[in-house]
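User: Modeling request: complex.
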Amino acid sequence: GEDVEQSLFLSVREGDSSVINCTYTDSSSTYLYWYKQEPGAGLQLLTYIFSNMDMKQDQRLTVLLNKKDKHLSLRIADTQTGDSAIYFCAGGATNKLIFGTGTLLAVQP
Amino acid sequence: KAGVTQTPRYLIKTRGQQVTLSCSPISGHRSVSWYQQTPGQGLQFLFEYFSETQRNKGNFPGRFSGRQFSNSRSEMNVSTLELGDSALYLCASSLGGEGYGYTFGSGTRLTVV
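Assistant: Request completed. Predicted assembly structure:
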């Protein structure tokens, strides 16, 4: 079945780059998304990439997609304390999203 | 432009009761989907509606149901509540589904006691 895996935790220092990784099993996803969730809040869409693209850059965010390995990554440049949150990758398929387990990003000042 | 509005924000119910949650999508969005978020199971898809028709349904028991009105507002209902139904219920709206992006509301925190 469909499955999306992420590492559980990532700790970085303020100003460093963060790289959050995601692997998925279902290659039928047309779009792949990254969402951010802060404590007590809903999900905020950060960016998404069409499955026939390899890379997408959006200000401090860079998404890389390796279709052969079914691997997706989100790079956050110049990470700030305000970036501390849980990050979810998700595959879009048949009018629904399949979410990963989420990665808690902790940014140390 | 108003975002996705979910009401109520918090709810406490007793086991065996039923509950109705409401979601008002972004104006012009015709797709509304619902997700359940729990610490143990993560984010799981419940169902998706487009123009009042359910297009997709997740793997949840029949106690979970939903509907969408002609103004695109949606409700989900959970009957005969169980302790395990305690969760954050998130609603997402979209112009038409994947490819258009999904915007989420802040969620309804349901606690079953």
